[in-house]
């Protein structure tokens, strides 16, 4: 099970939509939670269908601010228990597995609203033994290690958050990736980076999913990094069987390979058995695919790794323009990839 949570800071931008589509494809997401969508249900439903998610629930924005969206695949049984502008509280089970509670949050950024939010969140589960997981933007830095930049760490900022954790017996799930999940996108002395997005769980939820881990993805089309909860841990990639890709039909080289391998071989007066021809064609197409298309995938991964390297450390002025160029190059590659998918169905 993969659950994506992302503060998108508005879902009206094409680059954000492309980035979201690639995140859903990359992590094979079962549930997607988006905060600060700044869009209403009618528009978000169109985006949901593009992401191939089967159902959606929405909290409309207040004017041009806020807004929440929660999408799920058909195999996910999800019921909304209650909601407001800052959270959606649900019960969840996947493929008839044991039910648990999932609360998706966008904590208020204003100090005057934090106490009320965390106190209300604490009333959602009366049973301290409940299987409970909380995921999203906490808008809270809890230690000096989770922040760097020109503004100092303020211990008072985490007061209500820490009291909520103690009352609810929750703990943060280990994360892998960038140390910070939000940046003001500036360089050198103007830069501020903070860890704001996280996943919390009760011990009972942890017993249900002992291998759970959180992956912090790269920041591309928002000032927040997407976080992905992998409830069953990071799965090893299985060896792929040969599969003919529909996109190959558009390539003349593909047709030539098939024609060549099914034609009579030199020095022979027959075409060979069906099994022999099929094996030869499969091997040739596999080699051709790696040479022609996999190079682009490697190039894309290389760009992602470069972005990660820059985002994991202080952003120097000389790196700021480089980071912008890398993001632009990556979104352009995504655009080409998405266009190819649309052409080939």
From TrEMBL:
Pfam families: Exo_endo_phos. Residues 5-224 form the Endonuclease/exonuclease/phosphatase domain. This is Endonuclease/exonuclease/phosphatase domain-containing protein.
